[in-house]
Amino acid sequence: MTNRQQWTLIAGVAMTAVFGVALAVKLRPQLDLIEVGSTAPDFKAVALPGGRPASIKDYRGKVVLLNIWATWCPPCKVEMPSMEQLHHRLAGTDFALVAVSIDEEDSTVVNAFVKEMGLTFPVLHNRDGKIRQIYQTTGVPESFVIDRDGVIVKKVIGAADWAAPVNENLIRRLLDAH
C-alpha cells in the first residue's frame, strides 16, 4: 500500500468517525424514550381550580397514576369514572391520581368538565400541551403508573378501566413495597 493510499484510508476512517459522532449527537434526544423503567420527567402545570403551579415533583414519595387527557376526548370521558372509583378506594394511602388536561382553552372549560363529571382527584392544566412532548405521547388519553421513587412502571395508551383488579392490585403492590 502506498503512502497516499494509507493517508486516504486514514482520512476516510476519520471522516466516518466525525460524521458518526455528529449523527449520534443529533439523534441522542430522540433515543431518550420515555418508557417503563424511565424516571418520570418533570413538567409545569397549574392545579385547578385555584391555578397554583404544580408538577410531578409535588407527588414524589407517592405512588402516582399520571393521566394525560382532554375534555374533548371521548375515551378520556369514558375512563374518568373508573379513575374516580380508584381514587376513592385508595383514599388515605400514599396514592395520588393526577389528571393533566391539555385543553388549549382556559381553565373554565376544564373546571366545568370536572364539576360535571363529579371528579374529586387532583386535576392539573397544561394549557400549552408541552407535557405531550415531555412524555412523548401519541394522543389522549395516555397514563403512566409511577412508583415512589419516580420510576415509570406501567404505560397505557388509550382508555383503561382503572378500577379493574389488575390495575388496583398493581398500585396496591407498589404501595406495599416500602
Folded structure, characterized:
The protein is an alpha/beta fold and 178 residues long. 41% of the residues lie in helices and 19% in strands. The chain has helices at residues 3-31, 74-89, 107-117, 130-134, 165-176, and strands at 45-48, 53-54, 63-69, 95-101, 123-125, 142-146, 152-157. It has a 7-stranded mixed beta sheet. A hairpin with a 5-residue loop joins strand 6 (142-146) and strand 7 (152-157). The radius of gyration is 22 Å and the shape is elongated. The protein starts with a helix and ends with a helix. The model has no long low-confidence stretch (mean pLDDT 91).
TL;DR?
The protein is of the alpha/beta class and 178 residues long. It contains five helices and seven strands, in the order αβββαβαβαββα.
What is the topology?
Elements: H1 3-31, E1 45-48, E2 53-54, E3 63-69, H2 74-89, E4 95-101, H3 107-117, E5 123-125, H4 130-134, E6 142-146, E7 152-157, H5 165-176
Parallel strand pairs: 3-4, 4-5
Antiparallel strand pairs: 1-2, 1-5, 3-6, 6-7
User: Which stretches of 5+ consecutive residues score pLDDT under 50?
Assistant: none
Order of helices and strands: HEEEHEHEHEEH
Radius of gyration: 22 Å
Terminal residue distance:
66 Å
Share of helix, binned: 40-55%
Number of helices: 5
Q: Quote the average pLDDT.
A: 91
Features:
178 residues; alpha/beta; 5 helices; 7 strands
